[in-house]
Amino acid sequence: MLSRIIISALMLIALSISSVSGALGFSLYMVAYLVVGYDILIKAFKGIIRGQVMDECFLMATATVGAIVLALYERSGDYTEAVAVMLFYQTGELFQSYAVGKSRKNITELMDIRPDYANLEEDGSIRRVDPDEVEVGSIIVVQPGEKVPIDGVVVSGQSSLNTSALTGESLPRSVAPDDEIISGSINMTGLLKIRTTKEFGESTVSKILELMENASSRKSKSEDFISKFARVYTPAVCISALALAILPPLVSIIVGASASWGIWLYRALTFLVISCPCALVISIPLSFFAGIGGASNAGILIKGSNYLETLSKTKIVVFDKTGTLTKGVFEVNGIHHARIEDEKIIEYAALAESASSHPIAKSLLNAHSKQLDRSRVEDVKEISGCGITAKVDGHEVACGNEKLMRLISVEPIPCHSVGTIIHVAIDKEYVGHIVISDVEKAHSKQAVKELKRAGIEKTVMLTGDRTAVADTVAKTLGIDEVYSELLPSDKVSKVEELLKAKSPSEALAFVGDGINDAPVLGRADIGIAMGAMGSDAAIEAADVVLMDDDPLKIAKAIKISKKCLRIVYQNIVFAIGVKFICLVLGAVGLANMWLAIFADVGVMIIAVLNAIRALFVKKL
Fold first, then answer.
1. 193 by DSSP, 3-state: which?
2. Residue 452 pLDDT > 70, yes or no?
3. What was the pLDDT predicted at 224?
4. Phi then psi dihedrals of residue 182, to 5 deg
């Protein structure tokens, strides 16, 4: 495209300063015109055949061919305007292609995380296979410089991982045995052996690629408005241009004056060029596309421009606690009111929880530290929002909150320590409780402050934890409201209440990471999931995914969305305003074809350059 523009521009300059005229001049002008505009003429012709007449290609073809016919009719020999209109239009298209390419680059860089192969270890040998062929529980080897193909746990080796494609952060992440590792990372230093925990189709890298591939299909209300506007606007201006070319001369004939067909035809052609809605049709989707591209480069995946638009209206942010504001890394801090040995309470609790993947269960396993014989456990039952019951060595063991104790007719002893309290009963006799505390994420407090600066009016925390624990965390972090001791269904009900209480023009965002958060993520106006360690169900239900689980990214996502929407509204007001003024000037004869070129191509270039600003999000 660039070479065609340069050739046509040089020919136009040469013809403008030369004295070539007649048939030779016409031929040379047509060569310059066709070099830069042949594809537009072909598209316009194909559009007519398909019945899709009213688009920008048809308008440009009609206006430029009309200008050539008018020059032939007047025998002026000056075809500069026709070539210049097409030349400037294609220059604008080049700017658009650059902008789309720039924003697409950010997304395609993310697509580069797709692994080509996996090194499968079998019987002491390594075989290179397609990642789809690797089963859960297999051992794969990742050498320095290779991509991690599938989610898993490090079995042996230590290394640093480059996670910038996933999180937008350049700082490497160190991993060692027993650390969880997500696909899409690049192994930088040591050799790693990884036991896979998911199939390739369910791994992080596959989920991310699926999200990004589907993002462009979800249009915002602004984009839908522009599409509908263009469908009505284009036929309207074509009819207006036709009326401008025919009605004034006819009126002149009726009243007995001379009919200036050439003047009014020129005004009609100028009107057509001015009216072309390229700036709106191109810059609005481009602004959203650039916003999504900029966000993905910062480690924030937004599933569509409709979610980007809704995110900009967010006034209330509701948090889950565990895994969202806290690390979900629990530690046993004490055992109170023990009626048997402390080690026995930990052992029975760890065995009962041994089949669970909940962070509290992991903390009990870590506290026990010894190898567990899971064959000692049977008849495990998880009671939602209460805890777990199981048979251990033939004894009925119950581990959970006070609700669980009362369900099995055991009176718990209250604990005044701050933390998660796991009450333990054996054979329906209370034997004590374990105090477990969570660790707050490093940026949680700062994240709440940044949300306030980003215009969030209210922050809320919902948790199943005890009131004392929840209140302490909320006070430390600066959360406005907190609701504790909630079951998963209670969280949905509480979000429903908050949705009813807010203004229809405002949006509510819910941030979570667990399987039990999926219903709430789907119900909120905007669901935001922690993508690195969050559950598949949460990532699937969410509209926005934070790839490094950093709550600071929530405020950044909102700032990106607001910047993008500001750019969209600027482009809409600017494009429509300039078009309207120039259309009026063109209709009354005060605008020539050169002003028409500015009104079309100039406005489009300015709008596209403005849209490109949505890509730059690092300083937000």
1. strand
2. yes
3. 64
4. -105, 145
What per-residue string of b and e applies to 393-410 under the rule 16 or more CB within 10 Å gives b?
Answer: eeebbbbbbbebbeeeeb
Higher pLDDT, 33 or 85: 33
* Torsion from C-alpha of 133, 134, 140, 145, nearest 10 degrees: 50
The domains of the chain are located at 2-108+217-288+563-615, 118-149+151-197, 302-325+443-559, 331-437
Q: Is the pLDDT of residue 53 over 50?
A: yes
**pLDDT above 60 for 218:** no
- Beta-carbon count within 10 A of 576 CB: 16
Structure tokens belonging to residue 503: 């203004």
Q: For residue 140, give the 3-state DSSP assignment.
A: strand
Task: Specify which residues 326 forms β-bridges with.
Answer: 322, 440
pLDDT for the residue numbered 203:
67
Question: Are 364 and 332 spatial neighbours (Cβ–Cβ below 8 Å)?
Answer: yes
Q: Which residue has the higher pLDDT, 566 or 273?
A: 566
What class is the 331-437 domain? alpha beta
Average pLDDT, the chain: 80
Domain 302-325+443-559 CATH (choose: 3.40.50.1000, 1.10.357.10, 3.30.450.20, 3.90.920.10): 3.40.50.1000
Choice between 103 and 153, residue whose per-residue pLDDT is larger: 153
**Structural contact between residues 321 and 461, judged by C-beta atoms closer than 8 angstroms:** yes
Q: 95 is written with which tokens?
A: 């700017």
Edge-first strand order for the sheet with 544-546 is 300-302, 544-546, 526-530, 507-512, 314-320, 458-462, 481-483
Domain 118-149+151-197 has CATH 2.70.150.10: yes
CA distance 373 to 377: 8
Confidence (pLDDT) at 58: 74
- Cα separation, 1 vs 605, whole angstroms: 16
Contacts of 511 (CB under 8 A, 6+ apart): 317, 318, 319, 320, 324, 528, 529, 530, 551, 554
Q: Is 275 helix (H, G, I), strand (E, B) or coil?
A: helix
Answer whether residue 368 shows pLDDT above 80: yes
Q: Is 549 a catalytic residue?
A: no
Per the DSSP assignment, residues forming a β-bridge with 382 are 388
pLDDT single digits (tens) 119-178: 998 877 888 888 888 888 899 999 888 888 888 899 988 888 876 555 545 456 778 888
Catalytic residue among 151, 320, 550, 600: 320
Kindly tell me if the per-residue pLDDT of 307 is higher than 80: yes
Distance spanning both ends of the chain, measured CA to CA? 35
